[in-house]
């Protein structure tokens, strides 16, 4: 199914097409990895809504990326509960071990680091969201273990892609 068809199918569940913008953006982001201007315009055109409405939503919510992001999008909560439980130190640690600043992506394209408002999981502060998963009660050791497992996962993905790629001459 094309992106156009998926968006049309999702939008059919909403009486007002403006309400379908969020699910449509999620579909478009899954398809393209991020949401550059032409993709936002395409989403607006598919739904038949004002382009500005689509731009507003895409730039307001941190779950949407208008710029390319790494394979793993690290969103560390820096709101009160997480801050009181050490989020500031975790951010410094992440910046040090990844060699980037908040808002940047590692040169290998693996990690994008950002901070976000309360993730609604204060009981497991400090919390970081990676993709769709929450990781809580974090400390330096857990952050290191998490980064190791994400790197290993990326290695497995690269291995599978390499194995399924045709050899030269095939
Ligand atoms: S303050 Fe971090 S999850 Fe609520």
From TrEMBL:
**Sites where the protein binds [2Fe-2S] cluster:** 77, 82, 118, 122
One annotated GO molecular function is: NADH dehydrogenase activity
Q: Gene3D superfamilies given for it?
A: Glutaredoxin, NADH-quinone oxidoreductase subunit E
Q: Which Pfam families match?
A: 2Fe-2S_thioredx
Which InterPro entries does this one have?
NuoE-like, NuoE_dom, NuoE_N, Thioredoxin-like_sf
Is Iron tagged as a keyword? yes
Enzymatic reactions: a quinone + NADH + 5 H(+)(in) = a quinol + NAD(+) + 4 H(+)(out)
Could you say which cofactors this protein requires?
[2Fe-2S] cluster
**Alphabetical UniProt keywords:** 2Fe-2S, Iron, Iron-sulfur, Metal-binding
Cofactor-binding details, from the entry: Binds 1 [2Fe-2S] cluster.
Matches recorded under CDD domains: TRX_Fd_NuoE
Question: Which family is this protein grouped under?
Answer: Belongs to the complex I 24 kDa subunit family.
**PANTHER family in the record:** NADH DEHYDROGENASE [UBIQUINONE] FLAVOPROTEIN 2, MITOCHONDRIAL, NADH DEHYDROGENASE UBIQUINONE FLAVOPROTEIN 2, MITOCHONDRIAL
Name of this protein:
NADH-quinone oxidoreductase subunit E
Record organism: Rhizobium leguminosarum
């Amino acid at each position: 199914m094309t992106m156009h068809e998926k968006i049309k199918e999702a939008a059919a569940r909403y009486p007002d097409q403006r309400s379908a913008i969020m699910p449509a953006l999620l579909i478009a982001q899954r398809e393209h990895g991020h949401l550059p201007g032409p993709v936002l315009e395409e989403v607006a055109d598919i739904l038949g809504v004002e382009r500005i409405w689509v731009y507003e939503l895409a730039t307001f919510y941190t779950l949407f990326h208008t710029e390319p992001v790494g394979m793993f999008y690290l969103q560390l909560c820096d709101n009160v509960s997480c801050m009181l439980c050490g989020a500031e130190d975790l951010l410094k640690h992440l910046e040090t071990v990844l060699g980037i600043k908040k808002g940047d992506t590692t040169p290998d394209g693996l990690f994008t680091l950002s901070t976000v408002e309360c993730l609604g999981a204060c009981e497991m502060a400090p919390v970081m969201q990676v993709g769709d998963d929450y990781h809580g009660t974090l400390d330096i050791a857990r952050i290191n273990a998490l980064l190791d497992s994400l790197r290993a996962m990326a290695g497995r993905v690269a291995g599978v892609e390499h194995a399924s790629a045709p050899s030269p001459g095939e």
